[in-house]
Each structure stands twice: as structure tokens, then as C-alpha cells.
Amino acid sequence: MPDHVHLLFPLGGRLSLMQVVAKLKALSRRRHVSWEWQDNVFEHRLRADEARDDYRFYIFMNPYAAKLIPTTACWPWWYCPEPSACRFLPLLHADGTPPREWLREREVIRNRLHVS
Predict the structure, then answer these.
(1) Could you read off the pLDDT of 39-85 as tens digits, one per residue?
(2) CB 3.0–4.6 Å: which of 28, 41, 59, 72 could bond 33 by disulfide?
(3) Is the four-CA dihedral 35, 40, 46, 49 of positive or negative sign?
(4) CB contact set of 68 (below 8 Å; sequence gap of 6+)
(5) Are 92 and 98 in contact (CB under 8 A)?
């Protein structure tokens, strides 16, 4: 997204989610990255019973839902280090684009996850 980022990553045992975010902010300042941090940043730790694939799908479809890119194009900044963890990826069109009806599915998932 041009004005924000979605990150989904496993937490280790040493740092809390708040500590990881604080470290990310500190590292970006040290490296002179020109990011501006929102005051109302949304941080959410997934529980064992939460559907990770729903969050992955929501994140994947976000730029399409925001109309930053048509569903006939590939979002170049999507990165998934473990593609086999995303059950929806094999269902993409051969050119890597999502089916248009996935926009409706994203809204269903968004409402279920209670994300904005």
C-alpha cells in the first residue's frame, strides 16, 4: 500500500509485539528511512484459533480493494516467504492475478476479522 504496510510474521519468545514494533521503528530511524508512523497504528497478535489464511488473503487483496490496482494486474509488493502457507495462491489465474469475485470474498473476511 502506498501509505501503509501490512506485516504478518511469527513472534519469537523474546520480544512482545509492542517491542518488535518499537524495534522496527527504531531501525527505520537509524537507517534514515523516511517513514512517518501513525499514532493510531493497529497491532494485533493472532491467537492459535485465528485463521491465519484469512489474514493473508485480506492483506493480499487489500490493494485491489483500495482500487490501487485492477484485478487484471499483479501487485508488485506482495511478498510471502512461505507461499505454501497461503492456500489461495494456487487459485490465482495463470498470470498471477486474482479472480474479480475475490473482492466480494475479501469483504466477507474483513467483516469476520473486524479489521478496517
Answers:
(1) 766 677 788 888 889 999 999 999 999 999 999 999 998 999 889 98
(2) 28
(3) negative
(4) 1, 2, 75
(5) yes
